[in-house]
TrEMBL record:
Protein name per the record: SLAM family member 5-like
Keyword Signal: yes
InterPro entries: Ig_sub (IPR003599), Ig_V-set (IPR013106)
Limits of the Immunoglobulin domain: 21-124
Gene it is expressed from: LOC122141445
Membrane-crossing segments per the record: none
Signal peptide: 1-19
Residue stretches in coiled coil: none
Species of provenance: Cyprinus carpio (Common carp)
Pfam families from the UniProt entry: V-set (PF07686)
Keywords of the record: Signal
Length: 145
């Protein structure tokens, strides 16, 4: 019995999954960083970022093979030239955000431990500034005492 409970604790310690996604909101045109909560990538770490329910691979860092790549031409080039990876932490940076960037992002970190974080990104459209103009010279405001 003790061996079974110790085994279960050990398995849980090696596989940490955070089911509730972290909500992140930005306005269109801003940059956003999705944090891995890693202070420094270890030499045997494999970090993969996926987007959407189809889990399309959009970025990865493989320290063993020396790979730091973004796959910004997937999904018809939706992220073209706008994805960056922090090579120290593995965090994903999306520049010049668009409303089409809204969705679910998942980072899997495999090394000594396996950890998964999920993010739900919402990109809000930038609101236009209303223009107030006077249509005729008869428009005026007055106040009485």
């Amino acid at each position: 019995m003790f061996c079974l409970s110790a085994f279960c604790c050990l398995c849980f310690w090696h596989q940490v999954v955070f089911a509730d996604p972290e909500s992140v909101s930005v306005t269109e045109g801003e940059s956003v960083t999705l944090q891995t909560r890693v202070t420094e990538i270890q030499t045997d770490d494999l970090i993969t970022w996926t987007f959407g329910h189809s889990t399309t691979l959009i970025a990865q860092i493989n320290k063993v093979e020396g790979i730091v790549s973004t796959y910004d031409d997937v999904l018809d080039g939706r992220f073209r030239n706008r994805l960056k990876l922090d090579d120290q932490t593995g965090s994903l940076i999306i520049t010049n955000t668009r409303t089409t960037d809204s969705g679910n992002y998942t980072v899997n970190i495999k090394g000594t431990n396996k950890t998964t974080y999920r993010f739900n990104l919402t990109v809000y459209a930038r609101l236009s500034v209303p223009v107030i103009s006077r249509n005729s010279p008869q428009c005026s405001s007055s106040s009485s005492s």
